[in-house]
Write a structure and sequence with these properties.
By secondary structure, this protein is of the alpha/beta class. The strands form two sheets. Strands 1-2-4-7-8-3-9-12-10-11 form a ten-stranded mixed beta sheet, sandwiched between helices. A two-stranded antiparallel ribbon has the order 5-6. A hairpin with a 2-residue loop joins strand 7 and strand 8. The two termini are 35 Å apart.
Length: 252
Amino acid sequence: MTPTPNGVEFHRSSDPDAVQPTLIEGLPGHGLVASIAVDQLTDQLELEQYGSIRSESFPPVASFADGLVQDTVRVYGGTDPDVLTLQSDVPIPEEAFADLSRCVLDELADDFSRAIFLAGAPAQSEEQRGEVTGAATTESLRGDLEAAGIELAVDSGAVGGVTGALVSACYQADVPAALLLVRADPRVPDPAAARSVIENALEPLVEFDVDTDELREQAEEIQRQKQQLAQQMQPQGQDQQEEPMQARGMFR
């Protein structure tokens, strides 16, 4: 356990075997794209818990899995490839941004060579969903984005929330970091956009290969549910001969 003056603590579960790993952030945000993508990576790459982050500014929520209570903000790691992932079971409130950023810089920055942050952005059309653009804090990392075939974000813009706070903190501390902006459905969790950022950005950038069939199936199920909901919302009088369908939840 490593306490800091501001009350945030990093609890190390194990020593990292990875050599200069890449940190991939998967905190809840727009379309849950980052969370869905990084959950898939952690599962498919069989990453093990490396540590957890605690702070009084985090929501007072009890998280559990496999019959055991766990910290809501956790770090996982592995060596095939050399990666660390940062995940949370709950959205990070604004008052906790500074704590989390400080802990990442003070306790984790020496353990990774670069960081990749994921941010969902509203898709303006169905065709735009899954499009990925990138920006970097260093010239070298911008070159890595181009070499991986990731389109650079040439227009001016800004990213807020916890991801924006972390990217800003890394930039100001001269920690190499990349920001991947993913166009996603603004209304529901978007596993299709998560699948796109894995296949079209993370895999070529970090050089690994994972099975994303589960995300494709989730995306197809959500699309079916959206179509059913749209049919149910048709004006009464249409399709009078059809049996009305039962409403189904949009979230799994």
